[in-house]
From TrEMBL:
UniProt subcellular location: Cytoplasm
EC top class named in words: oxidoreductase
One example GO MF annotation: NAD(P)H dehydrogenase (quinone) activity
Chief localisation class: cytoplasm
The species this protein was found in: Thinocorus orbignyianus
Classification via InterPro entries: Flavodoxin_fold, Flavoprotein-like_sf, NAD(P)H_dehydrogenase_qn
Subunit structure: Homodimer.
Cellular component GO terms held in the UniProt record: cytosol
EC numbers for this chain: 1.10.5.1
Entry protein name: Ribosyldihydronicotinamide dehydrogenase [quinone]
Domain of life: Eukaryota
Length: 230
């Protein structure tokens, strides 16, 4: 719907990649709907993935012993986080929907995207104990993980060698997104795009565009262990 704000956090080194095409389809389709779309292209930005002392500008809360979670949280309160973190937080703050677009690496997100999570979602901004999960600070936001795999769909089933794809989603969807209160939409998974025909890849892109047309009408998934493990 017009007026909705979307942030696409995108991690792929090659603009001509299939992930790049998925990202472009999302930008095009959502813009057509009148949404305002922002892309954080992490590799192009040369985003720093490491959570270090450099993320805190000026004095430390405790100069005796460095505790990143505490220091970043305190720096957030006094507006003393590094400029790149503040810029990303502003994008997150404004977004109604967060789309994470990436290739699955080692059953997880690429390091540069995990680093974005580590540095941007600081205490006080994204979570505050006990304001987590259903009481989380981001309970007005939606998130969707859109990713590609190396293996085929059959590989990611309960009886198969890799196990159910939902097991892999637990740390990312539940441990990060739901923890911050975000409502999670069903993931969008493109299985093994490099091993299918050009025609099938085109069909995958069309399917993604189709889904985006009615995305705002979707109900979030049931954010409980049952969804992942039953």
């Amino acid at each position: 719907p017009p007026g909705k704000k979307v942030l696409i956090v995108y991690a792929h080194q090659e603009p001509k990649s299939f992930n790049g095409s998925l990202k472009n389809v999302a930008v095009e389709e959502l813009s057509k709907q009148g949404c305002s779309v922002t892309v954080s292209d992490l590799y192009a930005m040369q985003f720093e993935p490491r959570a270090t002392r450099n993320d805190i500008v000026g004095r430390l809360h405790n100069s005796e012993e460095f505790n990143y979670v505490v220091e970043a949280g305190e720096a957030y309160k006094r507006g003393a986080l590094a400029k790149d973190i503040i810029e990303e937080q502003k994008k997150v703050q404004e977004a109604d929907l967060l789309i994470f677009q990436f290739p699955l690496y080692w059953f997880s997100m690429p390091a540069i995207m995990k680093g974005w999570i580590d540095r941007v979602l600081v205490r006080g901004f994204a979570f505050e104990i006990p304001k987590v999960y259903d009481a989380g600070l981001f309970k007005d936001k939606l998130a969707l993980l859109s990713f590609t795999t190396g293996g085929s769909k059959e590989v990611y089933t309960k009886g198969s060698i890799s196990g159910d794809i939902r097991y892999i989603l637990w740390p990312m969807q539940h441990g990060i997104m739901h923890f911050c209160g975000v409502k999670v939409l069903a993931p969008h998974i493109c299985y093994a795009p490099e091993f299918v025909s050009e025609k099938e890849r085109k069909e995958m892109l069309v399917a993604w565009a189709q889904r985006l047309k009615t995305l705002w009408k979707e109900e979030p998934i049931n954010c409980s262990a049952e969804w992942y493990f039953e």
